[in-house]
Structures are given as structure tokens and as C-alpha cells.
Model the fold of this input.
Amino acid sequence: MNPDRFYYEISPAFSFYHSVTTNPEGFDIHIHRSYELLYFVSGNATYHIEGQTYQMEPGDLIFTNTRELHKIIFHSDDPYERKFIQFKPEFILGLQVDGFNPLAVFENRKPGHNNKINAEDVRAYKIDRYIEALHKYAQGGTSVDNVMIKTTLIQMLVAINQVFQDKYQGEQSLGVPNAKINAILAYINGSLHQRITLDDLEKAFYINKYHLCHIFKQNTGFAILEYISYKRILRAKELLAEGQSAAEAAVQVGYSDYSTFFRAFKNIVGISPNKYKKRSRERQL
Done:
């Protein structure tokens, strides 16, 4: 066993991961099929999530839902240590009650906003203790430990929601906002059904397209065309899961050429659009 790496899984619905990476390299833009909570232990890094920038400090907690594109950039060779939990909503079925949604902090936010809880609040609300408890139970790995993992996770989600109710509710963002970039992001996300070129953006926002590429990358961590491509495919996945054909989905996310859509989809998702649609339908049965 690698002493710097620990992984534990309870079916595909829950996993706990702890690792220390020396000389870390940045991660490419990606999304997850599960909700993710990442506890930042050490390192020198910045998270970029849907156009917002979060400079990380030891003890911070970052979380993302299944629709938020994100990546991490490292600023030195300092060891990167983190503990993170990935889970799907069905993992906590039966532990929810009417009038309270423990997933609200994942589901009721503007994408890329309020993704971070500062270390001070993580400690004040004892979220760090829940993470340590999850680590301990994951190391135990028994059926009883699995029950404790589920009940501890729901307690942690209650605490996280309480933080937002007490401290962050109504705040526009804990990241670093840029009004122009936010407007461009809104434009892109509202125009995925049609052609979007750099020339179009240049005309819409009165910014030289080369300068636009520079400030977009600088503020979001993403190349603008890369971001558009990922967003198109993310929307296409939703349409396929809803039962639309691959050809229909391609048109609705702005691809006039199916072969280009097919290549982009397979490159990002890893399988063809039709295979993804088939798997989605099988999961719904």
C-alpha cells in the first residue's frame, strides 16, 4: 500500500480519497458524475470553477456539483495533500426529511459561486472533525463503519448548509469576480444552441478577440474555446439522457456537422453519443 495514497469505496455511490502528491502538476478541465467535497490540507494552488478563482489555504473546503467545470493550477512544487469525498444523492436516501435539503449547497447556487468554505469556518462548524471521522471509518472498512460513514456524511452536510445560512447566504461570490467575464460566461451558457465564434464574442462585447482569449484564460483558468466545447457536450449529455437522438442533440448544442460533434463528445466523455444514451436509459430502468 502506498502510504501517501488511500482510497475507499462503498459501491459507485460513495468514495473517500486521501493523498499526498510531491511536485504536483495541474489537472485539466473536468467535471464529475458525483458531488465532490475536497478538503485542502496543504499546497500552493488555485482552483478555477466556472469562471471564479479560489486561492486555497490549508483547511479550506471546496465543493462542486455535477455541472461545474473546474481545474486546479499549482504555483510551486510544494507537496499537495488533500482529502476528498465523492458521492451521489442516492447514497443518502432515507436520511432526508421534508423541509430540509442537505444537497442545497450543491444544487441551489449559481455555477461557480460560493464553492469554498474558508478554513476558519470549517473549524468553527467542526466540518474538519467530520472529515477526520470519515477517514477513520473508511480505514475501518466494516459494515458498521459504512453505516457510520453515511450518518457522518449527513451530519457534515447539515453543518455545511448551516454555514451558508449563517454566513454566506446572499453573498454573490466568495471567489474573485470579474463583471466582464461573468457577462461572457452568461452569454456562452445562454447561446450553446447556436454558433459561437471568437468574432461573435468580439462584436458582442467590444473586445479584441485575442485580448478576450487572454483575459478569459487569466480569469477562469480555461481556454475559451475549450470551455465552450465542454459546455456544449455537457448539455448534449443531458439531452441524450432525456431521450433525444444523437443527431438532434448535436444540432441543439450548436454543431452543424455531426462528425465534429461525435469526435468532441467521444474525446470528452470517452464513449460515443449513442453508447452514452444507451447507458443512460439502462440506468433509468
